[in-house]
């Protein structure tokens, strides 16, 4: 068993809005959130006051403890206000990908039993359609403004009393992001107030922040990585978060230059752009002190190229998953030069790890031996919403969460993730469940069978690669027709990027798809 070398932290038994904004008054007029596109700035005092007013308005509208509010928005300075207002009113927040189709959104609404939606006006049509399909949605609110819908801006004028909700941090769910886990279709991950808040305290000694620090929030807040690293963590410690709605390289570089960004939390495709794109040389990035990459594997050579080009310490990596609130490993910012190339870091405080054999179930492996990574700690999820069997398959009776990732640790405790047992595809950090795409492909009238695996494109991104068996009587469909069929029915990040036609999908006697055989053809 591997244990963290860092001192344990006590559980943080606070509602997440108090754990993050408890010192907002002390930070006062310091900038908390800045819109990187138009410069709109909210101070800590304003964030604290505004989210309390919106919470009062939500409570007056009928939001009650136990309700679920769906937050469907790209990154804006209003996103944190909506999140903390909802939790202060007693609701759990299920975050929704802004590019989700109406059908995908509706499935999440129905599964989570969400009664409220907060969105932005450009996404209203999708939100309305999803609400119609799911049923049970009481009201759709907007962050900005739209005819016929109440806005958070209007709610700031509420004179209703601030809600005083009795929250049990150990049991009450604060966030309900959706994850495919090790396989299958997306499931609601129940993360309690205590789990999220304690994970922030676990991470703080290794990746500290302070007033005067500036981080650039280009990774989405709806994703647990962005929610933690770019919203909860910096706002808890008095740093300034500069918000961008999406990744556009020149806009991103201009924001670093103009706002004097000191820290970046990114995914590997952004590291690739920083390392290789010629336009990077046109901007002054001298304010940067560090870069942390997570959400997907980062090639050690690419990380080194990025740090050399920018004159920075080696790019640090971190590891975790939605079901872990999300962090378990990170390269400490004060030890970036000491981390072996390719390592995702060391165990954070209060966290234990086992590496177990892939061929002899339950057998523990030692230093340098590769096996499945198991994690135990206070940040492990409460479970999957409404899916006790899936929860039991993920977390064993001794409290060990089976990540589905394959890795090994060296004698100094540095972890290296080398493969995945699980079938999940990570496209630019976003989770794509092969089972979901396979089910969709089988609805095509000329497809007899299908299997989807991850394959790597020329930029090193893992992409969905469909292996399709045509019906015997079919003359089509073509590769482009298959890709279009899927693209019309899923969010852009789930699109099939490659198609191979095969005679039969290889399967075990149990019927399980033999994906390793297909990866050999990818």
TrEMBL record:
InterPro entries recorded: AMP-bd_C, AMP-bd_C_sf, AMP-binding_CS, AMP-dep_synth/lig_dom, ANL_N_sf
Gene Ontology MF terms in the entry: ATP binding; CoA-ligase activity
Keyword terms: ATP-binding, Ligase, Nucleotide-binding
Coiled-coil portions: none
Domain of life the protein comes from: Bacteria
Entry-linked PROSITE patterns: AMP_BINDING
Pfam families: AMP-binding, AMP-binding_C
Membership in a protein family: Belongs to the ATP-dependent AMP-binding enzyme family.
Name of the protein in question: AMP-dependent synthetase
Organism taxonomic ancestry: Bacteria, Bacillati, Actinomycetota, Actinomycetes, Kitasatosporales
């Amino acid at each position: 068993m591997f244990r963290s070398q860092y001192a344990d932290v006590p559980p943080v038994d606070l509602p997440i809005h108090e754990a993050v904004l408890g010192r907002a008054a002390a930070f006062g007029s310091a900038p908390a959130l800045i819109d990187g596109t138009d410069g709109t700035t909210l101070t800590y005092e304003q964030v604290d006051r505004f989210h309390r007013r919106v919470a009062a308005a939500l409570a007056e509208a009928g939001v009650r403890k136990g309700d679920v509010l769906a937050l469907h928005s790209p990154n804006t300075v209003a996103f944190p206000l909506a999140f903390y207002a909802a939790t202060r009113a007693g609701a759990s927040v299920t975050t929704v990908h802004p590019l989700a189709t109406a059908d995908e959104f509706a499935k999440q609404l129905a599964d989570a039993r969400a009664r409220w939606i907060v969105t932005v006006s450009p996404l209203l049509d999708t939100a309305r359609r999803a609400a119609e399909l799911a049923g049970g949605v009481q009201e759709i609110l907007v962050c900005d403004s739209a005819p016929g819908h109440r806005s958070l801006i209007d709610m700031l004028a509420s004179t209703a009393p601030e809600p005083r909700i009795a929250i049990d941090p150990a049991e009450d769910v604060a966030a309900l992001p959706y994850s495919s886990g090790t396989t299958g279709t997306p499931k609601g991950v129940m993360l309690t107030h205590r789990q999220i808040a304690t994970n922030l305290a676990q991470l703080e000694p290794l990746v500290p922040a302070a007033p005067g620090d500036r981080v650039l929030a280009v990774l989405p807040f709806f994703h647990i990585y962005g929610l933690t690293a770019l919203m909860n963590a910096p706002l808890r410690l008095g740093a300034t978060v500069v918000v961008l709605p999406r990744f556009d390289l020149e806009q991103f570089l201009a924001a670093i230059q103009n706002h004097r960004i000191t820290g970046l939390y990114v995914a590997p495709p952004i590291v690739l752009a920083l390392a290789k794109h010629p336009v990077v040389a046109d901007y002054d990035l001298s304010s940067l002190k560090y870069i942390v990459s997570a959400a997907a594997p980062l090639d050690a050579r690419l990380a080194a190229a990025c740090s050399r080009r920018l004159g920075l310490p080696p790019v640090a990596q971190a590891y975790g998953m939605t079901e872990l609130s999300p962090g378990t490993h990170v390269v400490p910012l004060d030890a970036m030069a000491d981390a072996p190339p390719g390592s995702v870091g060391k165990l954070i405080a209060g966290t234990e790890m086992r590496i177990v054999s892939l061929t002899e179930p339950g057998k523990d492996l030692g230093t340098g031996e590769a096996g499945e990574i198991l994690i135990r700690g206070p940040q492990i999820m409460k479970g999957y919403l409404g899916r006790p069997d899936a929860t039991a398959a993920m977390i064993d009776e001794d409290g060990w969460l089976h990540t589905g990732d394959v890795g090994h640790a060296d004698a100094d405790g540095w972890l290296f993730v080398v493969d995945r047992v699980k079938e999940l595809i990570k496209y630019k950090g976003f989770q794509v469940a092969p089972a979901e795409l396979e089910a969709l492909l089988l609805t095509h009238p000329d497809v007899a069978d299908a299997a989807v695996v991850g394959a790597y494109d020329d930029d090193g991104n893992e992409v969905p690669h469909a292996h399709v068996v045509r019906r015997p009587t079919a003359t089509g469909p073509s590769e482009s027709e298959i890709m279009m069929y899927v693209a019309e029915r899923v969010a852009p990040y789930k699109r099939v990027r490659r198609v191979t036609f095969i005679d039969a999908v290889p399967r075990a006697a149990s019927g399980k798809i033999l994906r390793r055989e297909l990866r050999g053809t990818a």
